[in-house]
Amino acid sequence: MLPVSGGDQLHVRRIWCGEKPVGAPVLMLHGTVEDGLIFYSHGGRGLACWLAREGWQVFVPDLRGKGRSWPGIDQYSDHGFHETVCDDLPALSKLIRRHCGEQPQIWITHDTGGALAAASLIRFGQEALNVDQLVHFGARRLISSNHLKKRLLVDWLWNRIGRLCVSFQGYLPAERLGLGTNRETLRGFHDGINWSTREQWIDSSDGFDYSEKVRKRHWIRSLYFASAADVALANPDDVRDFMHELGRHDGRMIVLSKAGGNRQDYSHTGMLLHPDAELDHFPELGQWMRRH
Questions:
Q1: Domain segments of the chain: what residues?
Q2: Are 31 and 61 in contact (CB under 8 A)?
Q3: Terminus-to-terminus CA distance in the chain, angstroms?
Q4: Quick check: 92 and 61 in contact, CB under 8 A?
Q5: DSSP collapsed to 3 states, the chain
Q6: pLDDT band at 21 (very low <50, low <70, confident <90, very high)
Q7: Has residue 1 got a pLDDT over 80?
Q8: Which of 109, 125, 134, 239 could form a disulfide with 114 if both were Cys (CB 3.0 to 4.6 A apart)?
Q9: pLDDT score of 23
């Protein structure tokens, strides 16, 4: 349990194989309305466990109020993206340094975790956070798809029905709406809408302009995974736009699909959770991480 600002504590699961892991430390960041279990299971499945078996040292937090972090989210929770970006991710980087020294870290993200990680790196820089590589699964900032599934899931269920629920309960009961496995705070809900619908990338708490500051950064070597079947939450075009928004850098994008030779047309979460992923694109990820 990692203490952070406001009296909150983040639950962090450390996963490794063998007495002395030899690979670089890896921090894995989940997205909105999820928790760290998107990356691992107690039975040893998932990307975090696969990476540990391949020799990396893996740290998987439940972000503030999610999973086993404390306290859970209710109508009194008053935190949003700002606290994650400015307090929690620097604290997690320091935690890894305490365990692994100054060895450069690899950050792997899913969904909104990608934008949160990018925002923290824009603010503080890769040197301060000791990050050497980034890997994103279904990460995007803006959601611009006009697919029917996106209009139903995002525009109607999330933005309209979700807004009503947040106004009534003071938080988003995502698990009851079938939108995810964890609740989201009122501030986090509105931050998510603002980041995904507005061209200008602004922190709602202090007005920090990420769009302007990212142009002054030399961005980190990054690998982006998207699924051709993910037409609503992380359309490949939105993933590509996110890659371009971060400026010119050594970035590679892989679009997963049966037509492209993959085993499955993966869903937004399936690219991490489907059993075929360990035989399909996880080895490609491992090769990229070793090569660099």
A1: 2-291
A2: no
A3: 31
A4: yes
A5: CEECHHHCEEEEEEECCCCCCCCCEEEEECCCCCCHHHCCCCCCCCHHHHHHHCCCEEEEEECCCCCCCECCCCCCCCCCHHHHHHHHHHHHHHHHHHHHCCCCEEEEEECCHHHHHHHHHHHHCHHHHCEEEEEEECCCCCCCCCCHHHHHHHHHHHHHHHHHHHHHHCEECHHHHCCCCCCEEHHHHHHHHHHHHCCCCECCCCCCEHHHHHCCCCCCCEEEEEECCCCCCCCHHHHHHHHHHCCCCCEEEEEECCCCCCCCCCCCCHHHHCHHHHCCCHHHHHHHHHHC
A6: low
A7: yes
A8: 109
A9: 79
For tokens 């893996």, name the residue: 58
Rounded CA separation 113/134 (Å): 11
Residue position matching structure tokens 């509105």? 190
User: For tokens 């700002």, what's the residue?
Assistant: 82
2-291: which CATH topology? Rossmann fold (3.40.50)
Angle, CA 92 vertex, CA 87 and CA 98 arms, to 5°: 125
Which strands form 251-256's sheet, in the order they lie side by side?
Answer: 2-3, 9-15, 57-62, 25-29, 105-110, 131-137, 222-227, 251-256
